[in-house]
């Protein structure tokens, strides 16, 4: 039955194009406070794996290998914005007529949620952002089920709703998402995005809600169940990078993609042959997760201690700092993934802050209690990354610029 559906999609979409989603970048100043807050959020994000590191049941969509392979670039792209080099976001709309929202495209989660017009007037984060008004949409379908997602300083809570969700002109019918009536503490105040659009497997979706990307493909809106990210680390507010839906954009790459299979289908998790720094092997046969929803580089506790010692970092008020004069002389951190070496320069794994005439250099390595690595935008921003549901694999390639 599924193969028949795929065939019908192929016939209907022979002329489909790759979708490019624009990523925007906020000009907000990044601070040490933001980093500490992100560490807390990241720890809660992976709380289930920290407490009980188990393999998820195979609940991914049954895409198999029967999607079409075309010689022409049949995919879609959206440009992204980058706020404080901590998160990348783009615009979507919900409802009829459309209501517009900026959302983080997060490969480390699987739910879509946005603020609700029903939120309290005392909810600062909600009042600062665009709010979904269900009564103003002719395609809204009520859903009485409550939802709650845990973050670093509390929970986003509200209820589920169903409506048309449009990404770069692609209208997803009957998409279920969360209307947030309460948002935690300061986690979502003074940020450039309104909500989050998760792009992981359905197995980690709260309430088992079908993620938007599943429906993009299953409703025949894109040709292939794959998407790619180009995250511009030093981009402008208008040129923060691109999210590509439904294919691969080879113009963004300076070489071939190196693919590795997803080893745990929930997050985008895969095996790394080894990670080394200046000849010192930090891990051999380790696991990593590609997470566009964080800027940090999380590693197991023993490695966290070791790498910060190697780079000469000193722990001050919970963060590790190096003398800025040593930054240019620090070696690269090398990741051997699928037999290919991907280097991370010190300028990527050290954050430089300028505050009231004083410059400080802080390590981006963090320990959140996992026995695997979380490769955030610190790593992903150096390479083009492809996420392939069809063949359950992740690919990396050097950037063309």
Question: Could you characterize the architecture of this molecule?
Answer:
This protein is mainly beta and 401 residues long. Helices cover 15% and strands 41% of the residues. The protein is built from eight helices and 25 strands. The chain has helices at residues 2-12, 32-45, 47-51, 124-127, 212-218, 301-310, 346-349, 377-380, and strands at 19-24, 76-83, 87-94, 99-106, 112-115, 141-151, 154-167, 170-182, 195-198, 226-231, 241-245, 258-265, 268-277, 280-290, 297-298, 314-316, 319-322, 333-337, 340-344, 350-355, 358-363, 365-366, 373-375, 383-388, 393-398. β12 (258-265) and β13 form a beta hairpin. It is globular.
Distance between the termini: 43 Å
Main beta sheet strand tally, sense and closure: 21 strands, mixed
Q: Give the number of domains.
A: 2
CATH superfamily of the largest domain: Acid Proteases
Low-confidence stretches: 1-15, 52-72
Give the overall average pLDDT. Answer: 84
Oligomer: single chain
Proportion of strand residues: 35-45%
The top level CATH class name of the largest domain: Mainly Beta
What is the number of helical segments per DSSP (H or I, 4+ residues)? 8
Number of strands: 25
* CATH topology (fold) name of the largest domain: Cathepsin D, subunit A, domain 1
Q: What proportion of the residues is helical, as a percent range?
A: 10-25%
Taking Cα atoms only, what radius of gyration do you get, to the nearest Å?
Answer: 21 Å
Quickly give the CATH architecture of the largest domain. Answer: Beta Barrel
Anisotropy-based shape: globular
User: Which class best fits the helix and strand makeup?
Assistant: mainly beta
């Amino acid at each position: 039955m599924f193969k028949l559906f795929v065939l019908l999609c192929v016939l209907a979409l022979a002329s489909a194009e790759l979708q490019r989603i624009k990523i925007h970048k906020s000009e907000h100043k990044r601070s040490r406070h933001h980093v500490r807050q992100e560490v807390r959020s990241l720890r809660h994000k992976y709380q289930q794996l920290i407490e009980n590191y188990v393999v998820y049941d195979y609940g991914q969509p049954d895409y198999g290998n029967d999607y079409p392979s075309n010689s022409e670039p049949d995919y879609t792209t959206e440009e992204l914005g980058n706020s404080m080099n901590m998160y990348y976001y783009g615009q979507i709309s919900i409802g009829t007529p459309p209501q517009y929202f900026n959302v983080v495209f997060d490969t480390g989660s699987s739910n879509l949620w946005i603020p609700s017009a029903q939120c309290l007037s005392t909810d600062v984060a909600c009042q600062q952002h665009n709010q979904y008004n269900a009564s103003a949409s002719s395609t809204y379908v009520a859903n009485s089920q409550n939802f709650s997602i845990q973050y670093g300083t509390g929970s986003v809570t509200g209820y589920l709703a169903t409506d048309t969700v449009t990404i770069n002109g692609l209208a997803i019918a009957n998409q279920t998402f969360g209307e947030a009536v309460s948002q935690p503490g300061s986690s979502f105040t003074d940020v450039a995005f309104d909500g989050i659009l998760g792009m992981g497997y359905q197995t980690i979706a709260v309430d088992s809600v079908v993620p938007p990307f599943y429906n993009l493909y299953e409703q025949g809106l894109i040709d292939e169940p794959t998407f790619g990210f180009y995250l511009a680390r030093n981009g402008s507010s208008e040129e923060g990078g691109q999210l590509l839906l439904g294919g691969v954009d080879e113009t963004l790459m300076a070489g071939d993609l190196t693919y590795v299979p997803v080893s745990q289908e929930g997050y985008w998790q895969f095996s790394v042959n080894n990670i080394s720094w200046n000849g010192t092997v930090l891990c051999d046969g380790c696991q990593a997760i590609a997470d566009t929803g964080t800027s940090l580089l999380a590693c197991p506790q023993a490695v966290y201690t070791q790498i910060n010692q190697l780079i000469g970092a000193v722990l001050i008020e919970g963060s590790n700092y190096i003398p800025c004069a040593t930054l240019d002389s620090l070696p690269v951190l090398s990741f051997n993934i699928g037999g290919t070496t991907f280097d991370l320069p010190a300028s990527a794994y050290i954050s430089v802050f300028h505050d009231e005439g004083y410059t400080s250099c802080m390590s981006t390595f963090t320990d959140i209690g996992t026995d695997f690595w979380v490769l955030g935008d610190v790593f992903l921003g150096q390479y083009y990354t492809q996420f392939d549901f069809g063949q359950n694999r992740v690919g990396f390639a050097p950037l063309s610029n």
